[in-house]
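Obj.: predict assembly geometry.
Materials: sequence records (below).
Method: joint structure prediction, all chains together.
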Amino acid sequence: MVVAGGLGKRYGRVQALQDLSLRVEEGEVFGFLGPNGAGKTTTIRLLLGLLRPTAGTAEVLGAPAGRAGTRARADIGYLPGELSLWPTFTGRQTLDFLARLTGRAAVDRVDMIALLGLSAHELDRPVRTYSDGMKQKIGIVQALQCRPKLVFLDEPTKGLDPLMQQGFYELLLRARGNGTTVFFSSHVLPEVERVADRVGMLRGGRLVVTGTMTDVRRTQRRRVRARFAEPVDAAPLAHFGELVHREAASVELLVAQADLPALVTRIGLLPLTDLTIEPPSLEDVFLEQYR
Amino acid sequence: MRALLLHQWRRHRVVLLLAPLGLFVFEWVLTRFAPSPAETARFGMMLQYLPQPLTDALGIQQPLMVGARQVLLFGYIHPFVILLLGLWTVRVAVGGMAGECGAGTMDLLAARPVSRAAILGSVAVTTAAGIVVCAAAAWAGTAVGVSTRDLGDVRPADFVWVAAGLALLFGAWAGVALFVSALHRHGGGASGIVAGTMAALFAVDYLARMWKPIHFLRWCSPFMYFEPKDVYVRGLATGRAAVLVCIAVTGAAGALFAFRRRDL
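Observations (raw structure tokens):
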């Protein structure tokens, strides 16, 4: 669906994206993570052919991104990160126009409008009277209304209230059920964790982590919390990992999966009352990458 | 392409109705002020009081001979006409590319299965169509006015080529505007450049007519290649028309070259 090899983009002296290689398979939800300025939007715009790469190549739906891929874009939906709409158009006119431009019937529009709670009255108002949240809903609908094979969503939940975010997740599940491959960027970790099959993490224009959620977690350290019946000397435990918190009768460590058996054996020699081993959350992974 | 043309129409329809209406009314009003054969002498005497540089600039060699025809021809190069047609040309040609980029809406267009050539084509076609409609409206104003008032041997058909020349002049400016628009990221900056250049070259042409030492500067202004009086007398000169067409085509081709290669 999406194949990028050594993709790079430079703006003068600023290297916005460097040597990005990734592959997104058909039908998956790919979460693209990174702090502001990491290169998420640049990557999406390169894949859509809105920007010209200064290095590398990209293929989207089997066609090269850019001019040669014009026809392939009939099967692609896109929600820009900084969504702008024509202020004098009504919501309905905007959706009609963009569907006409796509050249496909807006088969999913009615369902999506209902799910996101857009009324007919709201759709007939000019966009200039919309709140940011309503504009975002129109943006989401226009991206998915023609049931694309692939959709790029750049910060899709920006401006949506928590209730509407739930509606959006539901909508994403339906899109996936219809066979749409989803490539979405976000820095809201719980939502990526909730909907993505695989994730990629960018840092400073470089892809630093990519894989399934399980893979990504597996490579990360576990959080181990141990509580003891009496104060203990925690110094020997620090050999097994990073001691992140320490009190007289409790410790918290980050430990690599391979070191867990040895640590558990060692802790067993102490007057243990409680032991918890947590798999890393995506937030842990994220923080570890960007610390 | 059809969807893009409809999009342009929806964005600019109000201006496309108002600009031709303004031109129609303006040219019609001129026919009311133009002297009838009986008023020609009195009108000519009034013009004699104007300073000579100004009459030179207006292309009046013999003020006493100025009749309705000369007044109506001046109406095709009057600053008001230039302003309205300039407004249309800059608004559409610049708004369709640099304007959409600056507003952030270009992303929604360019991410669709439409080529950049189609986006530029829709802008160019809309600009050209509006210019033709404006020039036709100007001619219609003259035609209606001339038909409803006795101005001697002045006939509406005599102004058809003048209106065509006016359309060609702004076709050339449309080419310039498309090129500037294709290179810029914001509509405001591109509009400023095109409007500023247009105003400056209009002023150059105007001053060069009045002041002989800088007469040679006229060649660099597209306004030199449209002289309503010459078009009226000799028809649309092939050489001058070719220069205007050349500017238009070169501008559009340059715009296509730049727009297809740039980052949006």
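Conclusions so far: The longest helix of chain B spans residues 2-33.
To do: check interface contacts against the pulldown list.
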